[in-house]
Amino acid sequence: MAATEVSAPQAGTRSSTPRPGARRTRTPRTFEQANRRLKWAMLAPALLFVGLMIVFPLAFTLDLSLTDAFGAVNADKRHIGLRNFTDALGDTRRFWPAARRTLVFTVGAVILETVLGLALAMLMRKPFRGMRLVRTVLIIPLLATPVAIGILWLLILDPTNGIANHLLEGLGLPRQEFLGSVSQSLPMLMLIDVWQWTPMMTLLLLAGLSTLPEEPEEAALVDGANAWQRFRYVVLPMLGPTLATALVLRAVDALKTFDILYATKGAGGGSDFEVETLNVYAYGLTFDYQEYGLAAAVLVLFTLFIIGVVVVLRRRGGGKNA
Amino acid sequence: MSTSSQPLSRRSFGRLAAGAAGAIGMGASGACAPQGTRPSARSPLRIMAINHVWSQAIKRRTKEFEERIGRRVSMTLLTSDQLSSSYNVKLNASGTDVDVMMVRALQEQLVFAHNDWLTDLTDLVEGDKEFAWADFQKAPRDASLAAGKILSVPVVTERPTLYYRKDLVEGLGGPPRTLDALMSAALELTEKKKGFYGYVGRGQRSGAVSQWSSFLYSHGGDFLVDGKSAIGSRQALAAYDYYGKLLGTAGPPGATNMSLEQAMPIFAQGKAAFYIDADAIYSNFLDPKIATPAVRESVGFAPFPAGPAGAKPHNIPSWSLGINKFSLLRDDAWEFIRWAAGPKMSAALQSDGIPGARRSVWSDRRTLAAFPPDLAEAMRLNAERGLGYDRPRVLQVGRARDIVGRPLVAAILGESVRPVVRDADAEFAEFLVRDNRHKES
């Protein structure tokens, strides 16, 4: 198409407005112009969806966090500034212990999952007989819903009738309270999380390992590096970006864990709040206490906390590549 | 890179955008039910209820009601937590998809009244002679009121009953009549190494509060005295100590994780000698699908044992029926309540062993014949001695239970209770200030 047919822009008019009488120059459009409009038309439903489902709830939560909303979300409420935030941050009985548990659960579970996932991925790196079967078995915990998994483990770990205590007794070991205990509940839930999510770490890291070039490792082998040295100084640095991505994905997911805690310990995070994380605390404030303003403030703080963790992980884990 | 070979004119773009907006608008309007209009005759009357023997019995009889009103009934049965969460979600959105609500008059009714989520039934209830509101027991009637308005109609009542194994207490001279006797018998019968426990009961922080209330009253204590926290009193401390020792020493492992769902099966499986819980669940121990033959053949029922202040159990309306303020079928919803909580149905259900809230059915020997004789006697005595509440009477009952239940957990775990009680007492006092502020707002 001849670009010269388009008239030059004139002062006081839009640059795309053709001159009067220049009929041939009014309708033609460049593909880029047409695409730009079509693109927005195609994007409109998605943008509308994002606006309705993400931007509006976030803005609403933020607004709610600045009010004394109680009882019903749409009840009369006053804006009270940052009082909910100061109340939450000054609460040493529930908020800070919940924040600590959130961190302990996430760090503990994710470290174990990463180490075990990496170990399994290294073992499965080279093809072996029955590999497909092993991969299939690995995927099974990922397929079940967390609530189903919670109920399954609740039955297995029941202190009175569960099979776990029968096995311990069979081995001559003392019976345990497991999830019935105030002190054992959080570690047990971390182990259940590890059981469920280590396979995902394995699969992600296995995918990362399969893309690594073999030459650097072969060169290190020729230079006399042993297996550990090859892993530590060759494989691990190359796997860094994949590892960082897997770590961020899993950490964010672990921070948000709710369903398995609720399925096993019920509302309120156990009798001594032993598994009450920030998520469980916010749920309790909303559905048990109907403290919508305070719950919204806790959720805003929690969101900021997650963003902070992601930023730290990305910086520490070679975020540019992750 | 171009993806289109056709130029798009401004008019075409406008048409496309208008079409998309129209489609979205049509979709949205189709998704939303029209507000304020009466649903068609094919729309069911929606009832949300707790999964309880009462609601199961009603569900089996709904055909009779459907024929009466010419409308289908849809009944959803949930656990109490699920029910509570569903109400919060639906009613916060002014949902019209629930008509009759099964509510706990002592748990959420006040906060629902504060939110204006329940229909005022005063005129309907009092204006209907056939319904005979005066026939309901006083405690359940009082619990149905909020700011002078009747917001719910009680359908199930509960008292704590002592369930015990007759074969095990024969040598002890029968079931314990006092809390001291219960303690010594429970300790004597406990054989933890064999997996047998003298006592089983609720130990969860919040779930245990309602059962512990009878122990508190029987020690001479209460949750509130003159509107102020009384959980720091000497009597309350003694009740915390007692309950903690009973469940911690004679109870099964993991007692602090036990609510009704965990504690009841332990007794049903014959692994405990004594169990105190609601009398409404007694049929579980006579059911071959739940209880072992040893329990079915030897379970006995006794009134709540006397403490230092006598035997003071609770006697409460555990579940009531209300009407959603946003319901579009309020007339049919009221017809349902008239039918399900009416004198005829109450008598029929009590004859099936489900304890109701009407005085007439309690004074009718035929309805009492459904219960084992020792249970009927225990119920009668507990009702006579009982107080009409089993948890603090505040707006935020869930929060109050969490605070009051904290020392219970410490006591069961064998920790020093006194400092925990002191802290809980201070927290409860702070809470009451906040709760009153909410009440006034």
TrEMBL record, chain A:
Membrane-related topology note: Multi-pass membrane protein
CDD domains tied to this protein: TM_PBP2 (cd06261)
Region Disordered, residue ranges: 1-30
Alphabetical list of PROSITE patterns matching this protein: ABC_TM1
TM segment ranges: 40-60, 103-124, 136-156, 194-212, 233-252, 292-313
Family assignment from sequence similarity: Belongs to the binding-protein-dependent transport system permease family.
PANTHER family referenced in this protein's UniProt entry, alphabetically: GLUCOSE IMPORT SYSTEM PERMEASE PROTEIN GLCT, TREHALOSE TRANSPORT SYSTEM PERMEASE PROTEIN SUGA
Full protein name: Sugar ABC transporter permease
UniProt organism field: Streptomyces durmitorensis
Automatic annotation (TrEMBL), chain B:
Residues in coiled coil: none
Superkingdom in the source lineage: Bacteria
SUPFAM superfamilies on file: Periplasmic binding protein-like II
UniProt xrefs under CDD domains: PBP2_TMBP_like
InterPro entries in the record: Bact_solute-bd_prot1, SBP, TAT_signal
Protein name as annotated: Sugar ABC transporter substrate-binding protein
Organism annotation: Streptomyces durmitorensis
Upper taxonomic lineage: Bacteria, Bacillati, Actinomycetota, Actinomycetes, Kitasatosporales
